[in-house]
Design goal:
With about 170 residues, the chain is of the alpha+beta class. The chain is built from four helices and eight strands. It has a four-stranded antiparallel sheet. Strand 2 and strand 3 form a beta hairpin. The radius of gyration is 16 Å and the shape is globular.
Length: about 170
Amino acid sequence: MTNDYSAGNTRRTERRQLSDDKDTVIVTKLVSKGERLEIDNGTTSVKLDALLLEGLSWQHDRASVDELLDSDTTVSTDPAATAADADNGITAAETADPMTISSEYSHVLVGDTTTPAGDALVITTPGRGSTITLGVQSLRYLAAVDDTYVFSGWFRTPFGPEDTPIEGPL
């Protein structure tokens, strides 16, 4: 079998399976004219590039993700993410063998960890020092997003959240 790495052909280079007591989500790194992370809940999937993942990592409060995605509490009540927060969190660089998703604008590390409430995905933007942890419950919901344009709301400030040294206080 020969591999076709020509332009336009997508390679799946890394794959992780995350589970909780209810479901399983597959997270895959895709490479084709750029790198993206595919989150697949078995029914639907979403592909996020490095910039969208960086915007996601900026969210200090998962309730803001719920608000943007017009959800009641799906992300903010995620048991695996809440358990990870209780353990003082972890960055993707601290996970075993993190994936990198990069573009000319952004560089993100994506790792997985196990909490008492199930597996979780850790998304870290090292250059910004921002991290978010999302459990399978959150990832299932993100996979169902049919238009990634909704994430553009995070880019009202082009250099990140306003509560950083670059953008100033909120």
